[in-house]
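re: ur question from yesterday

yeah so i grabbed the chain u mentioned. its 119 aa long if i counted rite. heres the sequnce exactly as i have it in my notes:
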Amino acid sequence: MSTRIDRISEEVMKALAECIRTLKDPRVSGGLVSVTRCEVTGDLRYAKAYISVLGSEDDAKAVMRGLKSASGYLRREVAHKVQLRYAPELQFHLDQSIVHGAHISELLHKLEEHPDKEG
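ran it thru and got these structure tokens back, copy pasting raw so excuse formatting
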């Protein structure tokens, strides 16, 4: 059962990423937006989509507002592409893991440049 849900989650993630690219909303189409992962519930009623935005915090907030306002359209398009009986309700969550990873990488790079200094 869980492999079926995992497969559906993967399909929803791909379809959602494709649909986001077609949005005309300048809040969303302006920046680099990617769907990092998707978790569909066992009853297929809800899908948590984790969104990564490359840019400032204000850009990320604007993208999230744009996605929320387009959620009805995105839900319909995703259901059509994945061909599910019920379209899962999309819940968008900002994923900071890429930004966090870039920050850690930057810190490690600084340590490599100056190994004799602490901090």
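noticed a couple things. The mean pLDDT is 88. also The longest helix spans residues 2-22.
anyway ttyl
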